[in-house]
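Problem: given the chain below (128 residues), write out its structure.
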Amino acid sequence: MIKISGLCLVTLLILLWSISKSDQLAMFSDFFSPTFVFLGGTIATLSVNKELDNLAMRRLEAFRWGSSLFAALGVLIGAISILANLDEPKKLGPAIAFALLTLFWATVFNYLSKLIIENKKVNERPSP
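Solution.
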């Protein structure tokens, strides 16, 4: 568990470092995009039947699927907003940012979930 926590922490630190190197950290501090994606994953997680075996793994897979689905919805919402505001250039930036940031956060959540899933699979293998 410590190994996977360390890997997740290192991943987040690398993301923050690479974002800060571009001097655009404020652009990634949007609260709505990660919340939108996280809630989508959480809704999918809650839809998993509690009576199934290996519940934690199934919930993590559902979280990955739900966050990816909400990222696609975020891109569609952003694209619709872009097309609706083509005549107002000041409104294009936030729409494009929402579309791209939902993809960004879904990728981050998917990667972190995949790290946890792979770690659990390795730990569950029977030793010879």
